[in-house]
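<instruction>
Derive structure tokens from the sequence
<data>
Labelled lines for chain and fold
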Amino acid sequence: MANPSDQETLVPSSDSVSFLRHRPNSAATASSKTILTSDQNSATDCGEDSGVDRSFDASMRNRGEAEEEMKAAAEDGVECREGIARDEGKGAGVALPASFLYRASAPAHWKVRESPLSSDEIFKQSHAGLFNLCIVVLIAVNGRLMIENLMKYGLLIRAGFWFSSRSMRDWPLLMCCLSLPAFPFGAFAVEKLAQHKFITEPLVIFLHVLLTTAAIIYPVFVILKFDSAVLSGFTLMFLASIVWLKLVSYAHTNYDIRTLSKTINKPSYPRTTCIRKGWVIRQLIKCLLFTGLMGFMIEQYINPIVKNSQHPLKGNLLNAIERVLKLSVPTLYVWLCMFYCFFHLWLNILAELLRFGDREFYKDWWNAKTVEEYWRMWNMPVHKWVIRHIYSPCIRNGISKGFAVLISFFVSAVFHELCVAVPCHIFKFWAFIGIMFQIPLVILTKYLQNKFRNTMLNYLKPGQVGNMIFWIFFSILGQPMCVLLYYHDVMNRKARTD
């Protein structure tokens, strides 16, 4: 039978615990120094000093298990190695033997703590495991959709997507494309004449306006006159829009240099030292692979969905919502591949070949908290062009910031409509409305960002709501709706023509 004195030391009475809690920290520290650093010696000393049953010491001889338990106790605010347990919530020191901390009578709760998923703690935790779960679920869901699509439609990829006989016969569009460099050469000749004072400044402005206008009207006329393939028309309009932007920038920059020629230094571009040929080849291979992936997703997933859908504004509402949501996944994948293929791979390839050093073609637009941030970060060349040649001149001429933003979005909307509506031979202004609709979305996401920054609802970080709304309107609703609207309008136009 155990000695009564031993029983008293095994389970400390309330008086003894109270005494221990109110012991000075210096005394607790002094007593802790007598405990050895070795696990077995520490357990032995604690047992001799406090009368703890040695059977517990035998159970703690497994070094790995003891270290894990010590580590777990340390995470709870208990300093076991020194034989001291501290109540972090109250800051009181408790001088208890290390072995006592693992007894049934030892306190299990030492301080006030929140659950990891509570509103105060959720963003203090690491969510790497949940992120991995999302990736696994994404792979599983999309894998099932791929299998379902292949079982339902078979392999739909065709060579006609790349080498359509109709596209190969679009010689007028090809000749128009090859003649586009004539406009930059004309602008260069105008600037040479202006440099040598052969023509006056008003005539220089008139000639530049004439050249820039012709550079965009000429391709529109060719596409509308010849009933070409949509892909060929889109490619031509895309290139013509780039030429137009370059011509405006060239004329505006040279005019500004002539105006400020005595007050500014000669500008220079950052250049790289050499061309990395192996790097360029690798990027070209990636570009080809991602272009093929886009074509596969368009042929295999997007085309069957839009062909089996009704016009979103004329059919059943629930059916339209289901089609839009189903179409949102492949259109988002195609759009992301397009962004990576063009803005990252292709523009970096051109920059490498031209030894151009500034490669900031985009920023982290995927973290955009508002729609305004997205438009400022996802396409840096166009954004800088708009700021330099539209927004800032408007501000310098006394136009308000709000109206300058409206003009900037209006110009962007016009070119989006031209690049989509002209190749489709349909002017329903869906693209124009979609871009102009960004203005109220800018206001809405700004309002929500400020609202949740002030209130936070104790759940979300600032900007998360704006980021979610951006993804919903832009990727889940906007792009699929645009695809459905233009597809059915194109099909209806072809039916009427036939």
Remarks:
- The first helix runs from residue 4 to 10.
- The beta strands are 78-79, 84-87, 92-95.
- Residues 1-63, 75-93 have pLDDT under 50 and may be disordered.
- The longest strand covers residues 84-87.
